[in-house]
Amino acid sequence: MYSKIEIYNTDFTDKYLLKVEDKKMYVGFLIKEVVELLKENKTINQIINILNSKHQIDLKEEDINEIVTNKINNFVQQKNVTTLVKLFKILDPSKFTFPFIVTTIFDKKIFYPFLSIILILNSFLFFSQSNQPLKTTTDWLIWAILLILILILHELGHTVSAQKFNVKVHELGFGIYSIFPVFYVDLGESWKLKIEKRTVINFSGIFIQLILGCLFYTLYFHYNKPIFIHIFHTNFLIIILNLNPFLKFDGYWIVSDLLNEKNLMEKSNNILKEIVAFKKVKEKRVLIFYSLFRLTFLIWLVYIISNSTLKFILKLINNNSIKWNDYLPIIFLIYFIYRAISNKLKKEV
Fold this sequence. Notes:
Elements: E1 6-9, E2 16-20, E3 23-27, H1 29-39, H2 44-55, H3 61-77, E4 84-91, H4 100-103, H5 108-128, H6 137-164, E5 172-177, E6 180-185, H7 195-223, H8 226-242, H9 250-258, H10 264-276, H11 285-317, H12 328-348
């Protein structure tokens, strides 16, 4: 089972990254070398002799057994809790090499000023130019194709910036996150980087979308076709959704990096439990504020779903016409009930 463990040097002094599938763990040099020897099928006694001779230390059998059993084996065998269900792989981005002129854009001295300018420009255009409805089937088909293209290019944006920082992305695929169909890339190796580099990678998908937004608006300005302003608005709304720090999209990982909290959602849940139980919360203020804002967002979300569900029921009772989007709150409600029951059953087991 040790052959599955990938080992990476990191930007941090005397710290290495172990990765198995979607699981990651930082370790020191000793555990890293034990893993390397286990991957070579060395016995416990051989590992002891090699490490003692190499580092002039006095490791005992119980020391290595402690490392192997309580650290390495627990890491490999622990269940990976994720709401992303990977359906199929589309391509291996690591086989592509992007030109230097493209990766240079993600140098932070260029990236953040450019990102700020096009974000302000997209925001201004979004609020100054009203959307236009699509009327023909052809327009809707083009819109769907452009939407898929946007989502794929978003993930490729992460890939290009990752390559800038020598992170290999081996998988771009399609799956289901919670109940959302999504394209995804495997950025697990990016945990070997310092926060400022990971933040650029997390922003880079949105960065590509903002560039596409400028392109779509330019096409609308030139050709005056409703399809271009409609996809422009769709693209910007996806950006807003992605920036939401309370769902595990790009915004969440950006905040997680800035707060230097690898398990931000879990920590936030624990804080909220303590707040609800009127216990004193012993955490940083910024984490408490994040958790309170997240609670507010969740209450708002419950209100929206409940209100929309009530309207849906009233339409059924009054035999009013029901549109496809009227079913969305019901889908969300069923999903949240399923998650609540599923999580309770897991805890009981």
